[in-house]
């Protein structure tokens, strides 16, 4: 009985192992390659799958999600013979598990080497300045070459990014000095422009102020002249309305003599001849009233006709 029990136990174990090997569960976004006696049979998709135990075997399980692979810095020579180190990042996705398994031995290593060689070809046709400012152009060119080359491997390159472009240390120092000089130049230009603009605005303000001041003075002078003219017209109209005679005019002139004599520069008077005639009449009228003391500081001589008399006034100390 014991040999039969042992055989039964062995059969149960074999059946259990066969069941385990028959049922294959593939996770979502994954695929598995099935080989039968070493030959590709089919690709298992996500879910529950049945295979023939001890005949079919799982060769490879492949993740179908998008993968991100950073590559170490690679030295690349530019067109102007400068060595720069470039870090790259590749975003790829396996679209055909069979091709990724049988068309290339190691697609990660193949993508890395293809990236390095393609990058050297692209950068070799650019100088350093263009390399530093043309990342989008380099990314697009690199992605186009990689996507075309990896298509037959069942891999799609979705994106290529340059993480860093590091020129030599001496070139970095020169670039920093150049950038510092450019910043100083721009600062000096902006300062000079500010001073120039300030001077222009100041000059414009002074010009406007002078114009407004001159306009104000002109208006004030015009108003004063207009006022004086109005006063003269009023006096003239009043004199004519009152029908003043020569005696009244002579008396008014005598009242103005002290004001005319004010100031050290008033040495010469111009006296109209009509005033002289009026003074004669006034003198005669006052002679009838009584003796009259001497006037002012000098005698008046009347001229004939419509001429004018001159009177010399001694300077007043």
Number of strands: 10
Instruction: List segments where confidence is low: pLDDT < 50 over at least 5 consecutive residues.
Output: 290-317
Strand content: 15-25%
How far apart the termini lie comes to 168 Å
State the helix count: 8
Shape: rod-shaped
What is the strand arrangement across the widest sheet?
3-2-5
Question: Biggest sheet: strands, sense, closure?
Answer: 3 strands, antiparallel
**pLDDT averaged residue by residue:** 78
Oligomer: single chain
Radius of gyration: 59 Å
Structural class of the secondary structure composition?
A: alpha+beta
The helix-strand sequence is: HEEEEEEEHHHHEHHEHE
Helix content: 40-55%
Description of the molecule:
The chain is an alpha+beta fold and 317 residues long. The protein has eight helices and ten strands. The strands form four sheets. Strands 3-2-5 form a three-stranded antiparallel sheet. It has a three-stranded antiparallel sheet with strand order 6-7-8. Helix 3 crosses helix 5 and helix 7 crosses helix 8. The longest helix has 74 residues. It is rod-shaped, with a radius of gyration of 59 Å.
Quick structural summary:
The protein has 317 residues and is of the alpha+beta class.
Layout of strands and helices, then pairs:
Layout: H1 2-22, E1 23-26, E2 30-36, E3 39-44, E4 47-50, E5 56-63, E6 67-77, E7 83-94, H2 97-102, H3 107-123, H4 128-133, H5 135-150, E8 155-166, H6 169-242, H7 246-260, E9 268-272, H8 273-289, E10 308-312
Helix pairs in contact: 3-5, 7-8
């Amino acid at each position: 009985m014991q040999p039969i029990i042992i055989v039964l136990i062995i059969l149960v174990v074999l059946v259990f192992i066969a069941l385990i090997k028959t049922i294959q569960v593939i996770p979502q976004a994954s695929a598995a390659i099935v080989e039968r006696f070493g030959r590709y049979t089919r690709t298992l998709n996500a879910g529950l799958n049945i295979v023939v135990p001890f005949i079919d075997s799982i060769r490879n399980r492949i993740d179908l999600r998008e993968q991100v692979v950073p590559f170490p810095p690679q030295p690349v020579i530019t067109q102007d013979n400068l060595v720069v180190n470039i870090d790259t990042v590749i975003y790829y996705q396996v679209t055909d598990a069979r091709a990724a398994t049988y068309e290339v031995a190691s697609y990660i290593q193949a993508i890395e080497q293809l990236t390095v060689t393609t990058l050297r070809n692209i950068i070799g046709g650019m100088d350093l300045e263009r390399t530093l400012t043309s990342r989008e152009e380099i990314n697009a060119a690199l992605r186009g070459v990689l996507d075309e080359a990896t298509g037959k491997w069942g891999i799609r390159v979705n994106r290529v990014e340059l993480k860093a472009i590091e020129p030599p240390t001496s070139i970095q120092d020169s670039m920093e000095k150049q950038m510092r000089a450019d910043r100083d130049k721009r600062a000096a230009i902006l300062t000079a422009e500010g001073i120039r603009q300030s001077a222009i605005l100041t000059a414009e303000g002074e010009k406007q102020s002078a114009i407004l001041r001159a306009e104000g003075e002109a208006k004030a002078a015009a108003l004063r002249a207009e006022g004086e003219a109005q006063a003269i017209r009023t006096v003239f109209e009043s004199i004519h309305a009152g029908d003043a005679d020569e005696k009244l005019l002579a008396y008014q002139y005598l009242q103005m003599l002290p004001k005319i004599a004010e100031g050290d520069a008033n040495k010469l008077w111009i006296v109209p001849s009509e005033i002289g005639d009026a003074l004669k009449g006034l003198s005669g009228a006052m002679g009838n009233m009584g003796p009259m003391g001497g006037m002012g500081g000098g005698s008046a001589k009347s001229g004939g006709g419509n001429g004018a008399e001159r009177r010399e006034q001694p300077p007043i100390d």
